[in-house]
User: What shape does this take?
Amino acid sequence: MTAFLARNLKRKLVTLFLVTVVSFLIIHLAPGEPAQVDPLNPKFTPEMVERFRRAFHLDRPLPIQYVLFYRDLFTGRSVSWKDNRPVLEKIGERFLNSLPLFAAGTLLTWTLAFPLGIHAAVRRGGFFDRGTAFFAYGFISLPGFFFAYLLILLVVNTLAVPVLGMETYGFEDAPVLYRLNDRLWHLLLPAGLGSATGIAVLSRYVRSQMLEVIHQDYVRTARAKGLPEETVLYKHALRNALLPFLTMFGLLLPGLVGGSVIIESIFSWPGLGRLAYEAILARDYPVILTLNFIAAVLVLLGTLLSDLLYAAADPRIRLE
Amino acid sequence: MASANPGVLLAVEGLTVRFRREQESFHAVEGLDLTVRRGETVCLVGESGCGKTVTALSVMGLLPRPAAEIANGRIRFDGIDLAAGAADYPPGIRGRRLAMVFQEPLTSLNPVLSIGDQIAEGLSFHQGLCARRARERACELLAEVGLSRPEQRLSDYPHRLSGGERQRVMIAIALACGPELLIADEPTTALDVTVQAQILRLLRALKEKRDLSMLYITHDLGVVSRIAERVAVMYAGEGVETGPAEEILRRPLHPYSAALLDALPGRGKRGRRLAAVPGAVPHPAARPPGCAFHPRCPYAEPACRRERPALIPLPRARAVRCPVTAATLGGKDAGR
Amino acid sequence: MMDPAALAQADDVGQVQHRGRLWRTFRRNRPALAGFVFFCAFLVLAAIGAAVTSGREPLVDPGRVRLEERLRPPLSPARDGANPPFLGIYLLGTDDLGRDLFARMLEGAWVSLTVGFIAVGISVSLGILAGGIAGYYGRRLIRLRHAALALTLVAGTILGWSGHLPAGLLLVAAALWAGLGMRRRRQEKGRPRRPGLLDRPLIDIDGFLMRIVDILLCFPSFFLILTVVALLPPRMITIMAVIGLTSWEGTARFVRAEFLSLREREFVDAARALGVGDPGILFRHMLPNALGPVFVSATLGVASAILTESGLSFLGFGVPPPHATWGNLLADGRRFLFDAPWLTLAPGSAILAVVLSFNLFGEGLRDLLHPQAREGR
Assistant: This one.
């Protein structure tokens, strides 16, 4: 176990290092320069551009830039080129905005996808199965923002429910309960939308996993014991069908950063996805690279977590 | 009729099982008759694909739905009709009075549940034992099927056990609630030869001790000679010969049974080339007209190609589905 | 033991006989069949669209601006007699510049399809290449000298590209010369040399490729696509290449798994026993067997590439004008969501229908290749 962790961590650190190199190279080798040092930008005099280049080490060779950049990142000194605010502070602020959206979306996805998928597998070929399949394919095939606009059209025209932003403007002084209610309403549409595709994909996957397991010999053994069908399905089949999803549970972590650029853009939600989008537009390298670094760490942590979860849940797996 | 004969525990009459796959449909078992009396071991013999396992699953009500269904016939267990349809299989029979051991011990145990759990859950459900009592009982069962260190094995998971040990666990699960009839579907086929003998010995001992009735499915006539009191031979979904084991082994009547026996190495055959049955078992969807065995039969007559022979009852509790050899009973040694 | 030649043929023959049966099974899966029919109809439509909207004097002109005909709803007759649309009515209405939406959709069909197919072509070729190498040659070792060689090459290229042309060329030439030397030495059948420092094994090929996949997985894929597309000059080929380059891991993974298992199969042994060389085994015997699942994932991949393109268009990084794709029509239409909903609804429903048909067709194929999921045993 300890040996597994040590080896795994070493491997992941190497991967992380390579990721930092690759992302640094992608950003710096791409043609074009950040707006602040673009000599064609009329807002800047050559002196200002020169000062900027020096301040951000852009006059140094690439390897040195790399070292200096990640030194700044780890010591928390890197600042956004756009507004000179510390990168970590900006990210932290947006993260807190993204968190409720992410949490609500994930909760919706996981609580709905499993019952739907299991039910469809058990009643396979029946009305429920066909119905969920129809909707699942529909959601998977819809461009997310098209669906969002359809919903907005519907909601704005029929219900008086707030849609855009995180809260209604001018509500800052309202009583706490009012504000809470307002924010929940604002959360509803983006979270529901963000999870629609997730529910569709995950429920199909749950269904096929469940169908695969239902035909295993050990399920027949459980039936031969004369156990009630519910026990057979939910104790013997489901436990085995759920194993692969533990892996996916670990892989949820990176969603914290990847977020949904599109959903956040549609609903003017000031979250991490928007931050990334704005940073890319402005070629705000420190923000882009920091977000990328955090995402990579979360991916690697997520895979480690899912390995450990899998080993805990499946007696056949031993970590060596 | 079962009621007419109080000694009969399981009576299968005219069982026909239909499989549907895509657009084709065929009978995997057709018009099978089979009886198991109390305390008796009956061997169901035939090559793979002849419908033995389907028969066993029909009795257990475990046919894969919706692909397979009982199209015709009756299955009575102690006078209770089991063939009314898989959906309303009578409660309190399966796992309690009727149990089954499967062919593949490697895949028949749930990999994520401990051995103890898997034995105890039937006990808790059928006999209402509390968790602790069920666990004690599971431990006794493991000892009974000859597993060493049973207390420790209770919390082990199946992947830690060898094939033979897993099959012992499967037997323990089957015997947990004290069934009257045990169906064993080729329980030794997937195992090493030495382990096969051990499992066979175990089953025989358990049968004596618990006064079990057993329906033992095998393709191996060597096993039949060691365990069976009566034999039913199946070919392409049909029963072709039944009778006391001794009689059939000594003097098989149906040409197919004779050919099976001939293919068996044994005393008095040393140095001779073993006979193989020419040809292969037809797929049930492509069963030839007339007697299903006629393309491979050395005694086939023109009538065999046209008319499907009926099961002909013979003296000494035997029956054979072959008019040609039935006529020679008492005459020359059929088939050898 | 069967004769190896017969054995090598057996799998191929079995597959041909199987085909008629597969088609019959596929036909019974009604959603998949509908998907397939729609898929073919869409191909035909896109081809017709490309034919009638291109050229100097197109039959249907998607680029014609008629400012007096702005934002006309669908099915309205043309008021401007000089430049009549197809059949004289605006079948799907007009946009804010008075361009005929129907004509734009026809043009967009072909472009969207091109984006989807080329992106998937790139991703599938990369996936087959990487997966095939990992599966077939996976156990060969990459030694220090290989790594040194590759590093020199890359360094030379970068140097040459960034302005130090002579130094770069020198490095590339040195690397090529060393590489040729290595090749020559391997072909010589001399006495075995003592392995030196440069022969130190670093990692096997399989491990190396899996590492690359590990690294790629560390980038949230839409974020990566967005970054690259935003940094590179906006061109159609960039978008297709980036979508293709970020989506090959799945294909690579199962081609690798398939090759690993096929390599142990009898018919491959038999082919090898007959003296078939590596390329013959790979392309004639192994690849055809692995193509089924590749085809499935390619079909699903086209669907997701069309969706990704529409997402990029929404963020302003899609295929740039003057090309119309369904994605950028949809993205442009949203500005008139309340005034001219047809500008959103028409391309949106078209994307939905096409992506849905690709998905249904792909899933139907998958069911066909993976029968356990289809029928109870």
